[in-house]
Amino acid sequence: MSDQTAPDASSADTQVAAHQDAVGDDARTIRERLAQVTETVRAASREAHGDAAAVRVMLATKTQPAARIRVALEAGHTLIGENRVQELQAKAPELADIPHEPHLIGPLQRNKVNHTLRAGAVCVQSIDSLAVAQKLSDRIAALAAEGHDALVAEAPGTLRTVGTLRTVGTGSPDSEQSGPLVDAAPGSPTSTADPQSPLLDVFLQVNTSREDSKSGVTPAAAEELAGQVRELPHLRIRGLMTIGFPGAGDDEIRPSYAELRELSVRLRDAGVLPTTATELSMGMSADYALAIEEGATIVRIGSTVFGARD
Ligand SMILES: *Cc1c(COP(=O)(O)O)cnc(C)c1O
């Protein structure tokens, strides 16, 4: 029977149409969930900080294909976080035409520093050793010495890198000048660009859960690391990041977030962290409301927007 061995044109059309409907439904769901989370975060931010815009939503995009990330970016979202350098690299070319602000939020090995910079990361939130921080700063210096083109060599980062590996005239990591974290248009080039003194934004990752997690320094070790990283000429510390206590109950999570906030205040009061290093990256899908109550300025949301990961 011919219609069993070779589907006719109209059934092929039906399949294509069904596929497009599914893609359209998926995109709509992402947009709706993103809008919901954004609204919830704005309300919580107003409550905690008296300012609806004091907390930013970072989309945690691990395992998500570029096409689904693009849906969020086309809806006007800009801040995304990738866990793996390889994923950051793979998706960068596909998203290069949309200004956005990709951070690295997973562990960084020294041999991936170059890839991270060239893939256009505008911030590394996972600094937990002097060795990696030193390598980042050295590598930025080397790229700057090759000239501005080297900083933006692999096209995906072009737009973003100009506004990012910044470029503060004085070259002072403590400069009050606001960076891409607070820029309305993170992709826009800065007029003060000085390729000789580019700065990369970083967060120090602190392990506030005391679990045997490999990532993050202990709160006790954060002071020494902050003092060391602060001296590096091409890094600018924007704040602290913690994974906290994923999967734990509120009474375990809350203290781990409170501890990050207290640590941040203490280190700034002591002059160890720059006074401008006020960002607190903490909170995920399950607990972001609580993290905002404890002072988060960036919450990292994955599954609430993109659905459960396999
Ligand atoms: C995956 C991930 C998130 C987001 O997790 P969800 O529970 O999916 O919201 C946040 N931060 C880091 C570092 C992650 O790896």
TrEMBL record:
Alphabetical list of InterPro entries matching this protein: Ala_racemase_N, PLP-binding_barrel, PyrdxlP_homeostasis
Region (Disordered): 1-25, 167-197
Any one GO molecular function term: pyridoxal phosphate binding
Ranges of residues in domain Alanine racemase N-terminal: 197-309
N6-(pyridoxal phosphate)lysine: residues bearing it: 62
Domain of life: Bacteria
Compositionally biased residues, Polar residues: 1-14
Record keyword Ligase present: no
Record's keyword annotation contains RNA-binding: no
Keywords: Pyridoxal phosphate
Family recorded in the similarity comment: Belongs to the pyridoxal phosphate-binding protein YggS/PROSC family.
HAMAP family: PLP_homeostasis
Function: Pyridoxal 5'-phosphate (PLP)-binding protein, which is involved in PLP homeostasis.
NCBIfam families: YggS family pyridoxal phosphate-dependent enzyme
Protein name from the UniProt record: Pyridoxal phosphate homeostasis protein
Organism of derivation: Brevibacterium jeotgali
